[in-house]
Amino acid sequence: MLTNPSQLILRNSDLFTDQNVLVLNYEGDLLPKQLLETAQKVTALSLDYHHHLIMSPYAEPNLALHFGHMLPDEELFDTVIIYYPKAKPLASYLLNLAGVHLKHNGQLLVVGENKGGIRSIVKQVPDYFDNPFKQDSARHCLLYVSQLIEKAPQINLSDWVRNYQLETPQGEITICNLVGVFSEKRLDEGTKLLLSHLPNLSGRVLDFGCGAGVIAAALLKAQPELKIECVDINAMAIESCKLTLAANNFTAVTYPSDGLTQTKGLFNGIISNPPFHDGLRSTTDIAKNFVKDSVQKLEKGGVWHIVANRHLPYSDSISTHFKQVNVSAQNNKYKVYSNKISN
Predict the structure, then answer these.
(1) Which residue intervals define the domain Methyltransferase small in the entry (predicted)?
(2) pLDDT tens track for 210-227
């Protein structure tokens, strides 16, 4: 089943007949594969690792699939399709990336849901593109078309990152936050509660949904001997975390994972301010799967320490899989759950 934006793209497939097409930030369906019914060749770059895994089995000579924040080469394309991102600042980055990979006078297509802010594209398009016009609308989505009229500037990642100092209970750290990654110039209330009530951690610790690396950096500030692994599903978050660790002279292993699936072996601790959104939709599946999988990934005596909004249904899952619910701290918005695997 194709998402609504993907269906809108397909019904305009005459725009890229027999062309070499690049798709940026595609959604959780098989749209890149279906484009081959019209396009000559398709390359797709996903910033979401789950979406990348959905497409991966369908790779073929005319369908190149990549995960990350940039393509591995400088190939140029006839058409670039952008799925308008949930995080509006990320759109400017994707437009720059599209411009770098478009042939002169190449075609830009931008698609998105009405409620996702797609209309903002008219003001966001830089001056190396001509003014975008509305090509089509259907299924509560819009499709805009533009054209590359001047050479786009090369991407320098430092132009897309905010660096700032952040006070944590463990001390001051430097945060490097790329566009599209949630972070504030102050410690968010949930993470502050989590870090203010840390249990004793040792050995191999997993930071699940690492984001810009706030939790990992705070832990290493206090306990540099910890062997921390940082995972996230978002390419910009993973790159932000790497930059944050480097800025603080900390060392940790950072890689993409869909839930805990790509992690290996057992951990002495799992810590997280876990995400609970999938695109524009809030979902409890992430929370439920995270609890269930965590039990399988912890050593005996291992510590599971997370913070979550009070309204999220963690208690039932924790009770089912850990056999007890231990709330070590709470306020009017958040709860900190801290459980151990029985020896």
Answers:
(1) 172-338
(2) 999 999 999 999 999 999
> 281: pLDDT confidence band, cut at 50, 70 and 90?
very low
Count: domains in the chain: 2
Task: Write the CB contacts of 304 (distance below 8 Å, at least 6 apart in sequence).
Answer: 269, 270, 294, 295, 298, 322, 337, 338, 339, 340, 341
CATH classification of the domain holding 88:
3.40.50.150
Token output for 137: 């609308």
Give the rounded distance of the alpha carbon of 269 from its chain centre: 23
Question: Any idea which residue has 């593109």 for tokens?
Answer: 129
pLDDT score recorded for residue 280: 38
Evaluate if residue 20 carries a pLDDT over 60: yes
Q: Which domain holds residue 336?
A: 159-340
- Residue 62, Cβ neighbours under 10 Å: how many? 13
Three-state secondary structure of 57-71: HHCECCEEEEECCCC
Q: Is the pTM of this model over 0.90?
A: yes
Contacts of 308 (CB under 8 A, 6+ apart): 190, 273, 274, 276, 287, 314, 334, 335, 337
Helices (DSSP H) in 101-203: which residue ranges? 121-124, 189-196
116-125 pLDDT, tens digit per residue, is: 999 999 999 9
180-205 burial, b at 16+ Cβ within 10 Å, e below that, comes to bbebeeebeebbbbbbeebeebeebb
From 99, 133, 155, give the residue that closes a domain.
155
pLDDT band at 249 (very low <50, low <70, confident <90, very high): very high
Helices (H) and strands (E) in the chain, counts: 10, 18
In this structure, are 171 and 111 located in the same domain? no
Angle, helices 214-222/189-196, rounded to nearest 10 degrees: 30
Q: Sheet containing 327-330: which strands, arranged edge to edge?
A: 253-256, 227-232, 204-208, 267-272, 298-309, 334-340, 327-330
Over range 243-271, report the average pLDDT.
97
The answer on 183 and 151 residing in a single domain is no
Amino acid at 290: F
